[in-house]
């Protein structure tokens, strides 16, 4: 399905939802101030240059660690994978022209003839082998957790090889869409600052610290040359600044908008807003590294706390209907996802349960990185008020983009209780999201490569059984049972599935926003 522009009503007097939102925030000062109070970036794009304004800093053009959704659009323009996930959430061939399961534990792959990097050198089987090893060795990789096991490469010819695993990995063609290929000689087990790749663009300037890059057409590109000559990437953390810059023409595309900003932009001459259902889940996820005896190590306490959160109000009055309530442990838009339950709001019940579990007077710390999702600060402050109503005192710890939140997520920076975090559905499959979040083992925890310390052996065994099932119908049945089992562990205080939203100038055409919150830069063109 190709998303179409979503039309919002033109700006007008404050709607009932906006008024309710202001009331819900209780005068915390979160509402956007006048646009004139915020300075936007300077330097209007030229006629052949597309300028993107990202809400989070793109610290590198490598995706071993840096995988927030909008970054993938830029990273994939420079580096490519064997496959990619298309708008219909089905795998498509890119660097490979053949990718077939020939045995339960083997996939036969052939590299497309003539694929080259921007320096003119060919993409080789050795490059694929090295890429897999480098992704395996990097510490703290989100992508590593998606794989039940990493495949090994067995060359069978100059352009052909087998991907082998110990046990079946029936969605390996989807998983490999996340492994971007780099020349073996230039690859390392870390985020690469250089931009040598096989994509339609090459890097002509880069400032990872500032999150600013300039890309130009790759004249050695093996495919069709992209219509846009240059792409500038800007890091603009303040949403109001992104709005100003888009309105003035200094930016062509901005991502991760709140509905308030979308309403300001919709209906303006020369601006269009696009929206599509998303496959990302945003959670207030518990810290599963708590020692035995700690209240949050008890699933009953975690469950009790969920009754304190008025999710319906948060979606309606704070997120302004830019998200959907989750009824499972992964978004229902993912293939294989099932409904497992809902988050119910009942503060009296929360108080009673906490009292019965000797968990009164809890103090918790909630942390998150700015820009994790639209309206993040508003959500967090509203959650603090809701917890206060049931006797739980919560404090907030906010990290700026590019900070050291990864170290804290791994339990290396200090203690915390709940994290506001998003998890993308990069393959379109529930299986891989489940693997990434709930497939933790004691071995992975030793290197801090689990998702917030979530290590429950019975869940991992059940997940492993489902992940290696080659019969699709039987795999879906096992995955359904697994999702119910995960729900019963109460991993999140609350969760929601945000809709994917961006705005663009009218001169930007051919931008097809996908459910995975990225788009193909080679399809974008500029008019005027």
UniProtKB/TrEMBL annotation:
Recorded superkingdom: Bacteria
An MF annotation (GO) of this entry: peptide transmembrane transporter activity
Residue ranges of domain Solute-binding protein family in the record: 94-442
PROSITE patterns: TAT
InterPro entries with a match to the protein in the record: Peptide/Ni-bd (IPR030678), SBP_5 (IPR039424), SBP_5_dom (IPR000914), TAT_signal (IPR006311)
One GO term of the biological process aspect: peptide transport
CDD domains assigned: PBP2_NikA_DppA_OppA_like (cd00995)
UniProt GO cellular component terms: ATP-binding cassette (ABC) transporter complex; periplasmic space
Coiled coil: none
Protein name, per record: ABC transporter substrate-binding protein
The species this protein was found in: Streptomyces liliifuscus
């Amino acid at each position: 399905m190709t998303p179409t522009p979503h039309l919002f009503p033109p700006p007008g007097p404050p709607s009932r939802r906006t008024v309710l939102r202001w009331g819900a925030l209780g005068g915390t000062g979160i509402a956007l101030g006048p646009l004139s109070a915020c300075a936007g970036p300077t330097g209007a794009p030229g006629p052949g240059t597309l300028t993107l304004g990202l809400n989070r800093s793109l610290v590198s053009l490598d995706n071993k660690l840096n995988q927030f959704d909008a970054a993938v659009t830029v990273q994939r323009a420079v580096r490519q994978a064997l496959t990619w996930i298309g708008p219909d959430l089905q795998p498509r061939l890119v660097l490979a022209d053949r990718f077939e399961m020939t045995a339960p534990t083997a996939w036969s792959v052939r590299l497309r003839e003539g694929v080259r990097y921007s320096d003119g050198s060919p993409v080789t089987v050795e490059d694929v082998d090295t890429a897999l090893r480098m992704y395996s060795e990097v510490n703290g990789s989100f992508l590593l957790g998606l794989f039940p096991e990493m495949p090994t490469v067995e060359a069978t010819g100059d352009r052909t090889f087998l991907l082998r695993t110990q046990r079946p990995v029936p969605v390996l063609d989807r998983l490999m869409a996340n492994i971007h290929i780099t020349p073996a000689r230039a690859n390392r087990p870390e985020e690469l600052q250089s931009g040598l790749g096989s994509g339609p663009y090459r890097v002509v300037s880069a400032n990872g610290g500032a999150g600013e890059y300039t890309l130009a057409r790759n004249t050695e590109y093996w495919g069709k040359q992209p219509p846009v000559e240059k792409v500038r990437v800007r890091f603009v953390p303040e949403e109001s600044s992104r709005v100003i810059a888009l309105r003035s023409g200094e930016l062509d595309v901005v991502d991760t908008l709140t509905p308030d900003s979308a309403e300001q932009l919709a209906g303006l001459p020369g601006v269009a807003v696009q929206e599509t259902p998303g496959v990302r889940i945003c959670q207030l996820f518990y810290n599963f590294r708590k020692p035995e005896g700690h209240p949050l190590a008890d699933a009953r306490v975690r469950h009790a706390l969920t009754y304190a959160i008025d999710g319906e109000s948060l979606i309606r009055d704070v997120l302004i209907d830019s998200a959907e309530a989750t009824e499972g442990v992964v978004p229902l838009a993912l293939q294989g996802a099932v409904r497992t339950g809902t988050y119910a709001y009942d503060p009296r019940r929360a108080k009673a349960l906490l009292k019965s579990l000797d968990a009164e007077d809890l103090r918790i710390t909630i942390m998150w990185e700015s820009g994790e999702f639209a309206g993040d600060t508003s959500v967090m402050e509203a959650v603090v008020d809701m917890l206060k109503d049931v006797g739980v005192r919560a404090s907030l710890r906010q990290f700026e983009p590019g900070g050291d939140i990864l170290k804290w997520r791994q339990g290396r920076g200090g203690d915390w209780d709940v994290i506001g975090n998003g998890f993308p559905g990069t393959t379109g499959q529930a299986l891989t999201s489940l693997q990434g979040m709930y497939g933790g083992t004691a071995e992975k925890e030793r290197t801090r490569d689990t998702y917030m310390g979530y290590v429950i052996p019975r869940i991992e065994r059940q997940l492993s059984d489902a992940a290696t099932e080659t019969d699709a119908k039987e795999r879906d049945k096992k995955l359904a049972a697994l999702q119910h089992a995960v729900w019963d562990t109460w991993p999140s205080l609350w969760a929601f599935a945000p809709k994917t939203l961006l705005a663009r100038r009218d001169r930007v055409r051919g931008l097809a926003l996908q459910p995975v919150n990225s788009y193909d830069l080679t399809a974008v063109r500029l008019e005027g």
